């Protein structure tokens, strides 16, 4: 029973600290942009004029085919 006299105030103190930290995080803007970091992974930070990825996707260059001679 004497342990309850220590544990209940300690638990209430921990809950109070957790609530204080939560409200501090909300007020300081920690939860303002939840989707930004998730969507930023989808976009490249590279130069859009860089064509190495386009060339790689198209495969190696092949010489133009000549029409058959008649």
Automatic annotation (TrEMBL):
Q: Positions of the region Disordered?
A: 51-70
- What start-end ranges are recorded for coiled-coil regions in this protein? none
Transmembrane segments annotated in the record for this chain: 6-26
InterPro entries (UniProt xref):
Cyt_oxidase_maturation_cbb3 (IPR004714)
Q: Which UniProt keywords apply?
A: Membrane, Transmembrane, Transmembrane helix
**Could you identify this protein by its name?**
Cytochrome oxidase maturation protein, cbb3-type
The protein's organism comes out as Pseudomonas fluorescens
């Amino acid at each position: 029973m004497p342990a309850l006299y220590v544990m209940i105030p300690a638990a209430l103190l921990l809950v109070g600290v957790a609530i204080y930290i939560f409200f501090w995080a909300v007020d300081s803007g920690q939860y303002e942009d939840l989707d930004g970091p998730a969507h930023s992974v989808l976009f490249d930070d590279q130069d859009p004029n860089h064509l190495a990825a386009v060339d790689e996707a198209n495969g190696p260059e092949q010489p133009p085919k000549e029409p058959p001679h008649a």
